[in-house]
Design a protein that fits this description.
- The chain is α/β, with parallel strands linked by helices.
- It has 6 helices and 9 strands.
- The strands form 2 sheets. It has a 6-stranded mixed sheet with strand order 4-3-5-6-7-9, sandwiched between helices. Strands 1-2-8 form a 3-stranded parallel sheet, covered by helices on one side.
Length: about 200
Amino acid sequence: GLPVVLLDRYFPGVDLPYVTSDNYQGALEATEYLISMGHHRIACIKGLPDASTSMDRVAGFRDALARHQIEVDETLIVGEDFSERNGYVETRRLLKHSQRPTAIFSLGNLPTFGAIQAITEEGLSIPEDVSLVSFDDHYYSPYLAMPLTAVAQRMEEIGKLSFKLLRDQLDNTTKRKTGGISLATRLIKRSSVRKLTIKERN
């Protein structure tokens, strides 16, 4: 009987109010941008497999590839959580792949940190050797050695709307709230993605 609002998550089949980003559309747009820059071998470092955020972002990634008739290489969809270590370990593996990806799409800030560390330790550079896009923008993103292309979420607005939904429930306890709100994301293009030549695409 307690008022509940889910923040940045939802659970399929559970009818509770939530406020989140449009994770599917954000990932779709980011992947389509990489494709428009000539990248077909794109790796995806995902987060927690059962988290709605990760599932929706991976779905957007897959659908973007399908829209452009690019076959999904399952060996390039990796990861198990939103940690820095996950990004680091998986990027090290991806860079040893027999057909190294030309771009990596990291589905969270912390995995992106790990990816950057792994790329640097391999003696490679962004975006000359591998392009990188992060889901989630951060205040540091424009100030990195290679300003990071990122999917920006409206976190402050998510917080305000979540509080409003919760307050509405507290003010009107007889009316049960259901349904959710998904806020549009914004792709911020910086210099961590390189446009491939026709020769490099093959």
